[in-house]
Amino acid sequence: MRKVPGLEALQRDYGPKGVKFYYVYKALAHPELHGYVTPYTLQERLAHVREARRRLRTQIPWIVDAMDNRIKHAFGDRPNSEFLIDPEGIVLVKRAWSNPQALRADLERIVGPVAQRTDPDELELGRLPGRSEARPAELPRLELPAALVPVRVRPHLATSTEPFYAKLRVEAERSVLRTGSGKLYFGLRLDPLYGVHWNNLVGPVKVSIDAADRIRVSKTALVAPRPEQDSDAAPREFLLDVTDAQRGATLRVTVHYAACHGKEGWCKILAQQFTIILERDPDAGRVLRGRARRPVRSERATDGDQAARRSGPLLRGTVVQVGSGQLLLRTADGDTIKLRLLPGSYAVQRGKRVALQTVRSGQRVAVRTIATGATPAVRYVLLLPSEP
Fold it and tell me: What's the rounded Cα separation, in Å, for the pair 86 and 82?
């Protein structure tokens, strides 16, 4: 949503001239970003839009795509496309990637310039929350295969009287789709829309494989570790070996869990069913995991300095100064943060790893840190495109 300020400024300038602006909610391009997971119903998509409007404080109205993603497909399946359409329905300009600065030039050419441009930085807009995955010590991150492909997951909505508080994502190694053998990843995440947590007192989260058609599985019961704490909201993840999988093979699974709502004071024991189809899902988006997940040990399981070398938050801001073993970062709130540069720190630009010397003062960046003591250290610096 980093394009929002520029688009909102355009709406302020060209709305009075009769230009209508709309955001289109399509299938999530990056599920789990900002903590949100793929919705299963139109009501959940509408709830996502209400949440986005509340947090971002946008004035542009939203159009919500149907669950079959017909708008997404009609627009070319791009995650962040942009269209300028005249009153007769003729597409005047289309872009695979939204560019508010270029759109302003288009509007100046077609509609005419405005007397005074709105400065995006002066708009009182909000921000989406960062992604946080606090995990109990008993639930380390899995080390996953390097290339995983999302496959189709069909929740049996009609068989459950309750919402699917936990959302299931299944991904397969490419070899599963090509040769029929490899690993399947099962990820269960609580939907933050519902504000629930796992109840560990009832028992661990389980996935049972009830039926397998044209595929062999290494086990039929997946049981997550049971944390010592009474409740948590951390993901539950599993890896499963499969063989002899034919294209379009299916698994019917049931997810067993107990969900509780702290504020409303209820707990429910649930068993919800899904069908997994071993075909690539073009609407499932891509989870931005970075490197393959590796086990993360807690302080209780480690000692000394290694216990403190855990991944810290992803900090966004503008580089004030870089060099002499440190990086000064100014956040959107106006705070200046001092970070240490460790040997091996690097930068990422347009998805490619580049030398840290590429980073310059004035650049917008997102910095992944490592907690190593009083002063966080830089793990890597992601170079972000400049805002218009």
Answer: 14
What is the structure's pLDDT at 299?
Answer: 34
Question: Looking at the domain assignment, is residue 142 inside a domain?
Answer: no
Same domain, 22 and 56: yes
Say which amino acid occupies 103: L
Distance from C-alpha of 9 to C-alpha of 77, rounded to nearest angstrom: 26
pLDDT at site 219: 95
Rounded Cα–Cα distance for residues 199 and 226 (Å): 10
In this structure, the strands spanning 236-243 and 216-217 are antiparallel
Domain count, the chain: 3
- Which of 122, 157, 181 marks a domain boundary? 122
In a domain, 272, yes or no: yes
Distance, C-alpha 78 to centroid of its chain: 16
Mean pLDDT of the chain: 87
**Which among 203, 192, 209 has a CA at the least distance from the CA of 231?**
203
Distances (CA, A) of 345 to 173, 278, 308, 328, 378: 30, 39, 17, 15, 6
Would you say residue 171 lies in a domain?
yes
pLDDT in tens, 329-385: 988 778 888 888 887 788 888 767 888 888 999 998 888 887 655 567 888 888 887
CATH of the domain at 338: 2.40.50.140
Cβ–Cβ < 8 Å for 246, 213 = no
Q: For 26-76, what is each residue's pLDDT tens digit?
A: 999 999 888 889 999 999 999 999 999 998 999 999 999 999 999 999 999
- Judged by DSSP in three states, 178 sits in helix
In this structure, the dihedral spanned by the alpha carbons of residues 295, 300, 301 and 303, taken in order and rounded to 10 degrees, is: 110
104 and 9 share a domain? yes
My answer on whether 93 and 20 are in the same domain is yes
**Residues in the chain, overall count:** 388
Check residue 1 and give its pLDDT: 54
Instruction: Look up the domain containing 61 and give its range.
Output: 4-122
309 or 299, greater pLDDT: 309
